[in-house]
TrEMBL record:
Transmembrane region(s): none
Catalytic activities: a quinone + NADPH + H(+) = a quinol + NADP(+); a quinone + NADH + H(+) = a quinol + NAD(+)
Superkingdom of origin: Bacteria
Keywords: FAD, Flavoprotein, NAD, Nucleotide-binding, Oxidoreductase
Residues annotated as binding FAD: 63, 138, 341
Protein known as: NAD(P)H dehydrogenase (quinone)
All copies of domain FAD/NAD(P)-binding, residue ranges: 18-356
Gene3D superfamilies for this protein: 3.30.390.30, FAD/NAD(P)-binding domain
Cofactor(s) for this UniProt protein: FAD
Molecular-function GO terms, alphabetical: flavin adenine dinucleotide binding; NAD(P)H dehydrogenase (quinone) activity
Amino acid sequence: MAEPTPEQQPQDERPASRVVVVGGGPGGYEAALVARRAGADVTLVELQGLGGAAVLTDVVPSKTLIATAEWMTIAERAPELGIRDGGVPVTDAPPGARAHEVDLARVNARVVELAAAQSRDIAARLESVGVRVVDGHGRLDGPQRVVVDRADGGGRGDGASSSSEVLDADVVLLATGATPRTLPEAMPDGERILTWTQLYGLTSLPERLVVVGSGVTGAEFAGAYNALGSHVVLVSSRDRVLPGEDADAAELIEEVFRQRGMEVMSRSRAQSAVRTADGVLVTLADGRTVEGSHCLMAVGSVPSTHGLGLETAGVRTTRSGHIEVDRVSRTSARGVYAAGDCTGILPLASVAAMQGRIAMAHALGDAVVPLDLQVVAANIFTAPEIATVGASQRTLEESGVRYRTSTLELARNPRAKMLGMHDGFVKLFAHATTGIVLGGVVVAPRAGELVFPITLAVSQRLTADDVAQSFTVYPSLSGSIAEVARTLHHPEA
């Protein structure tokens, strides 16, 4: 009797699928975990460290720094809450004096320590489930083969050099992330002209920090360093900070920035940044100059797709160099998937992780729900934070959808009054006919925590009445979400 073919073998006797993941950030390590749970033989290739930029140089470090800045912001409310510092009313301090000072060297040491600890936790988790981790740079040699240039110089041959290893795969996932964009006329030196990945080497607080770029990264760091005690100049080429965000939220944040002493230069495009004897000189396109002790270049990022062998494998890229993927993370090459910032879909760690999980589920034959950006919650870690989910007011207006909206100021919330919170609001959008919640904006301290009820409403297609009729704790900040939903009640809906 003939031996059964692999397709005829019982499921548990079939050879395990070989999965190679290139990149150890959220998209990569989450994909590796899903693949192992599905029984695949998984190898993850990472050169810089597990967790990728999200853990080592971007999300975890920046939000750790911002957490310290948040405590400085909270401390500013001490006099209003009746708190004295050292027995002396904070209000008696001389003009310009601060009740608290920041030891930036210790702050940055803690930032680096926490990032390294998180990276070790990810490594331990991957090891515990049987994922093989290879230190090195991975590149495609056709759609089902990855060549790894080993960081340790070791290798096993297979036609490659002694410092390389060849990995054959049934499925390849590319999750190589992105790096800060640089300008030829403002090249970072790691000392005075910096990208956001280089800030954590500073041992003393910049006296005057010029931040070039008013998008999410620029706004977050400008707000953080302003709270830590630096004089900050924010150079924005647009009419306002955070040009891609809800207009009301962005306007409020810019107003708060100015109230806290930040110098915001709107409609001012930076042309160059050069070192001076004791600082930096930033030249604007109109000829004006801005002097500072340090300059942070926050002008976007570029995908880390160079040297991946994409053309060899038949993987298409966009004009910007991002890898083209569909809603289940497939590329144009059979068996090759991609996730995270290298795809340019939405630069959020949560989206990268979801892309990686979807990719593995699809590749290994599990049920899968394609990526839906309409239910993605996002947060900007300014003070106050801006959290959004679902459709924005701009997209609703541009699409012609009939909608109703209502806004409630945070200052009206009793819990906010108790905590000395003044700046912020909750805004909801609901369909004019059905009452289904289409989106929302929360501007408040810890808005990233508060937006979750709205995320549930959007993802589960709840109506404003559904939200309004749900109990909230009194007093609570989340009570404002139910209250603003009650104002959207439509008897005919």
